[in-house]
Amino acid sequence: MRVELGVAQRRGMAALAGREVRRVLALWTQTILPPVVTAALFLAVFGGALGDRLRTVEGVDYLDFILPGLLVMTVASQTFANNSTTLFQAKNEGYIEDVLTSPLRPWQLAVAYMAGGLVRGFVAAAVVVLATVPFVGPIEQPLTALAALILTGLAFASLGVITGVWAETFDQHSFVASLVVMPLTLVGGVFYSARTLDEPWRTLTRFDPIYYLVDATRAAFTGFHEESVVTSLGVAAVASVTMVALAILLLARGWRLKP
Amino acid sequence: MSSDRIALHVDRLTKVYSDGTHALDALELRIAAGAFFGLLGPNGAGKTTLIGAASGLVRAPEGRIFVFGHDAVSDPRARLLLGVAPQEIHLDRFLTTREVLTYHGRYFGMTKRDAGERADELLGVFDLGAKAKTKPNRLSGGMRRRLLIARALVHRPRLVVLDEPTAGVDLQLRHELWLYLRRLHEEHGQTVLLTTHSIDEAEALCERVAFILRGRIVAEGSPRELVEQFGGERLEDAYLEAVRA
Fold first, then answer.
1. Structural domain contains residue A204
2. Mutation test of the interface with chain A: which of B94, B100, B153, choosing the one with the most A Cβ atoms within 10 A?
3. B76 vs A15, A98, A105: nearest CB
4. pLDDT tens-digit readout, B104-138
5. Is A138 helix (H, G, I), strand (E, B) or coil?
6. Closest residue to A11, CB basis, from B18, B94, B109
7. Is the Cα dihedral A203, A205, A207, A212 positive or negative?
8. Subunit contact A23:B82, Cβ cutoff 8 A
C-alpha cells in the first residue's frame, strides 16, 4: 500500500531529524562536552579572576553580565559547527544522495538538518545554565531569553547548512568558523558593553547581528540592555529569517550538491 | 498508453554540465511497466546522467522525465516510486548495516516498524543478516554492493534502477545477484532498469535493451531484434556494430 505523499514527507523529515539528533547524542564527548568546558573556563577566568577586579559592568555583577553572552556564543558556535560538519561529511562522502533522492522538500531537509544543531546548542547551553544557577541571579524574562536563543540557533544552524553546502575542502569549512563565526561572536559584546568602546568600534559593533542577540539575552537575564529589546529581537529575527531562507534556497537549487 | 503502463518516459532530455560536456542530447526513451530493461553504452555515454535526472541527483536538465506519469524533477511522488542503486557506493558511515536500510525506508515514508521488518527481510535475502550491526565501512566490497541494492528496494519502489550493479563483483556474487534480480522481476512484477557494460548481463536478464551513445538512444529492441537489425550472431556483435556506426 502506497503512503500518501505528505505523510511520507513528514515521516522522512522526522527520521532525518532523528538521525541528526542521535548523532549529536552518541558523540556527546565531541559535541556536548567541549562547549560546556569552554563556557565553564570562560566563566572561571573572566567571571572569577577578572570579575574580582571588575565587580560590576553597568551596574551588573560581572558573572551575571557575561553569562547571557556566553550562552549566545555557545548556541551560535555549536549549531554552526554541528550543521556545517554533518552536511560537509554527507556531501564529501557521497551519502547525502540517500536523502537527495528521497521525496523530502528542500525546507524539510533544512529543518531536519537544523534539528541536530539546535539540540546540540541547547543541551550545551542548558548545562551551562544549570551549572551557574548557584552563582547568578534569577532570569528576569525567561521567554525573551528563549526567543533570543532560538533566533541565535536558527541563524547559525542555517549558516552551518550554507557552509556545509558551500565548502568543498575542510579548509573552507574551517575558514568560516575561524574568520566569520568566532570574530562576530567576540566583537558582539559578550564580555563588554558596547557603550565603553571608542568610535568607530562602537558603531561597527551595531552591524554585528550577535550584538543584538547578546543584548536581548542580557536584557532577559539581567534587565540591562543597550538597545530596545524589540529592536534587538527584530534585527535578530530578520537575520535569522534571511539565513534560513538562504539555506533552503541552496538546498532547493542543489548548488554544489548536484552536478 | 496511460501513465500506469509507462514506468519511465524521457522526453527530449538534455543535460550540459558546467564544463561544457553534453551528457544527454535530446534523449527519448519509454520503458513499459513491468519490463526488465537494459541500457548499454560506453563510458561517458550518458547512462549515469540519465539515472541522476530520474532520481533528482542531477541539476535542472532540459526536457522532461516522468516516472509512472509523475514529473521526476518537480513532483516528489516520482521519488516514492523509484529506487536507485547508484554506481558509486556511498553509505552512511554513522549507521549500521541494518540502520542504513531502516533509515532509508523511513526517509521514504515507511513507519519505523515497517522499515525494520523490511530491513530484516532484505538482510536475509542478500545474506547480510550476520552483518546487521556492522558499520558499512567494515563490510567487504561485495557486501557493500549488496547493501546498496537492498537499500534501493527497501521502500518497495515500482521502478528499480541499478547503475552497473555488478561492477567489481566476483563471478559467484554476480550470478547470485542475477538470480535475485530475475526473481524480483518475475515474482513482484517490478520494472527494472539496468545499466551495464556487460553484454552477458544484458542478454541474461533483459527483455529489452537500448544502446546509448553520446547522450542519445541509437537503437532499441529485444536482444533478438537488435541482432537482426545490426547483424552478427550475438548481442555483442550488434552492440559493436551500433557503436561503430
1. yes
2. B94
3. A105
4. 999 999 999 999 999 999 999 888 999 999 999 99
5. coil
6. B109
7. negative
8. no
**pLDDT, tens digit, 9 for 90 and up, residues B49-83:** 999 999 999 987 899 999 999 999 999 999 999 99
Burial of A41 (0-12, 13-18, 19+ CB in 10 A): exposed
Q: What is the DSSP letter of A196?
A: G
Cα atoms in the Cβ-side hemisphere of radius 13 Å centred on B32: 11
**Structural domain of A207:** 5-253
Write down the mean pLDDT value for chain A.
91
**Is A166 inside any structural domain?**
yes
- Which of A23, A95, A103 is opposite residue B76, by nearest beta carbon? A103
In order of A122, B195, B208, B217, B244, the CA distances from B221 in angstroms are 60, 15, 5, 11, 18
Domain boundaries, chain B: 91-156
Contacts of B109 in chain A (CB under 8 A): 3, 5, 7-9, 11-12, 103
Nearest by CB to residue A15, choosing from B79, B88, B103, is B103
User: What is the distance in angstroms between the Cα of A160 and the nearest Cα belonging to chain B?
Assistant: 19
* A5 contacts B151? CB cut-off 8 A: no
Chain B residue with CA closest to A20: the answer is B94
pLDDT band for position A112 (cuts 50, 70, 90): very high
pLDDT computed for residue B118 by the predictor: 97
Residue B168, classed as helix, strand or coil, is coil
d(CA A148, CA A22): 25
Contacts for A50 with CB less than 8 Å, ≥ 6 apart:
A62
In the structure, what pLDDT confidence band is assigned to residue B176 with cuts at 50, 70 and 90?
Answer: confident
Element (H, E) at B38: strand B36-40
Maximum CA extent, chain B? 53
CA A56 to CA A131: how far, in whole Å?
A: 21
- The verdict on residue A258 lying in a domain is no
Which backbone phi and psi does B39 adopt, to 5 degrees? Answer: -120, 115
Number of domains chain A contains: 1
Residue A102 to residue B103, Cβ atoms within 8 A: no
